Structures are given as structure tokens and as C-alpha cells.
Amino acid sequence: MKTYKILLGLIFFSWGVYAQTARDTMQAYASAGWKVYKQHRLSEAEKEWKTALHYAPSDTVAYNLAENLLVQKRPGEALEYFKKAASISKNKQLKAMAWHNIGNIYFNKKQYAQAVEAYKNALRNNPEDDETRYNYALAKKMLKKQKQNQRNKQKNKQQNKNQNNKQNQNDKNKQNKDQNKNQKNKSNQKNKNQQNKDNKNKQNKDQENKNQQNNNNQKQDNKNKQDKNNKEKKNKQDQGKDKQNKQQPNKPDQSQNQNQSGKEKSKQNGKPQRKSKLTPEETMRILQALKNKENQTLKKVKARKAKAVRIKQDKDW
């Protein structure tokens, strides 16, 4: 038990000695930093104060280091050490000053909500600070304005979104309308092309029928012409035969006498009479002879009528 108490005593003694030594070292670096800071050797002062805080925490060293960084226009790093000073300090005046500077940093960054809270903490530690109270009121005003701007911005954004949606819908409707119009035009063009094609086919068919009709008419004309030529040729042949028959009028009679003589001879022989077969030339001569004989008879009748005496007769009307 006595040994245990002795060990605890040694530990506390050693810790006290180490803590005292650390504080002494921290104070030594802090003093060195303050000395060069007054000479405006800011970088050296920063180094000395950071080394001092490495050995032991100190609200004054942290505050001085934050002020140094603020002078060097490094507000982000200064904010860290102001917060450290405010958290570890038991001095309300120092805490109020640290929170005041924290509020200023947030205010300059336009983070008005954080600035308002920092100024509140400063006033809790020093309610009589008029500068902090003024900054607090200004921060609240700017926060209100900022919120209003944000609402307006959100409203404008929504309006722009609605406008864009409306415009997009209008564009889509126009596009659909144009597509429908193009489709309709395309369909009309297709129908027109089909109609033109049908008309062309009809015209071609009509032309083919017309050509066929012309060909048929031409063939008929050629046939009629050929028939006419054949008829004329036949008439000429008939006229030649008539002339020839006129020059030989008795030949048909001789042929007829011969046929009659043949018939009588057949009767005398006691055999039935058989019609003799005539050649086409003979048939034509016989027919021509009959025609000539008929013509002669008509001439005699006309001659007799011409010799008749016309009796004068008075008009009875």
C-alpha cells in the first residue's frame, strides 16, 4: 500500500513538473512571437505562436495568432484560431472579442445566418459593446434581405422553369403541327402523284386504243381499197370479155346447137340424157351471149317506140 502511494505521488509530481515545463516553453515562444509581431515580422510571429500552442493551449496566443492571420488576409485560417480562443478562454472580454471577429468574418463572406449567431455570443459575454450590437442588427437586416432575394430567386427560377416548360410545350406543339402538316402534304403529294400516274396510264391506254383504232381503220381502208381495186380489175376483165363476145356472137349458139344435137343423139340411142359439164370459160360465154341477146331485144323495143306517132292532146285542166 505504501509502495502504491509512493508511485502515485511520483506520477503527479512528474506530471506537474512536465506541465510546468510545457507552460514555461509555451510562454517563451509566445513572448518571442509577440516581440517579432511588434516589429511587423508577421510570418515569424505566426511561426513562434504556432510552436507555443504546440506545447500548451493558450487563449491569448490563439487570439493573437488569429489576429496575425487576419492581417495577412487569411480569414479562413484566422477563423479557426478565433474559435479556439473563444472555446478555451474563461475571460468574457476575450471571448466577446473572439466571437465579434468570428461574426465579422462570416459577415464578409455573406454568411449572414452564422454572423448573427456569432454576434449573439459576443453580446452574451459583453452586452455593452455597441459596435457588436450594431453589427448584429445589420447582420439580421442583411439576412432578411438575403432570404427575400433567395425566395425571389427561387420564384424567378420556378417562373423561368414554367416559362421554359411552356415554351418547350409550344415548340413541341409547333413541331407536331409541322410534322402533321408535312405528313398531310406528303400524303397529298402521294395522292397527287398516284392520280397523275393514273391519268398518265389512262392517257397511255387511250393513246393505245386510239392507235389500235387507227391501225384498224388503216387496215379497213387498205382492205376497202384492195376490194375496190379488185372490183375495178374485175370490171375491166368483164368489159374485155363483153367486147370479145360482141366480136363472136354466134359461138354460144353453136355451142347450144351442139349440146342439143348431143341430147337428140342420146335420145335416139335410147340412153338417158346426161348434162354436159361446162368449163368456166364456156359458162361465162353463154351468160354473156344471153346478156347480149337481151340487150339487142331492148334496143329493138326502144326503136319501135321511137317510130310511134305522138298524138296531140289538148289540155283538159
Descriptive keywords:
single chain, 317 residues, mainly alpha, 9 helices, rod-shaped
What does this molecule look like?
The N terminus is likely disordered. The protein is built from nine helices and no strands. The chain has a domain of 48 residues. By secondary structure, it is mainly alpha-helical. 86% of the residues lie in helices and 0% in strands.
Radius of gyration: 75 Å
**Global shape:** rod-shaped
How many strand segments?
Answer: 0
SSE order, one letter for each helix or strand: HHHHHHHHH
- What ranges have pLDDT less than 50 throughout 5 or more consecutive residues? 1-18, 249-259, 261-273
Strand content: under 5%
Q: Secondary-structure blueprint of this entry?
A:
Blueprint: H1 2-38, H2 42-55, H3 59-71, H4 75-88, H5 92-108, H6 112-125, H7 130-247, H8 251-268, H9 280-307
Helix pairs in contact: 1-2, 2-3, 3-4, 4-5, 5-6, 5-7, 6-7, 7-9
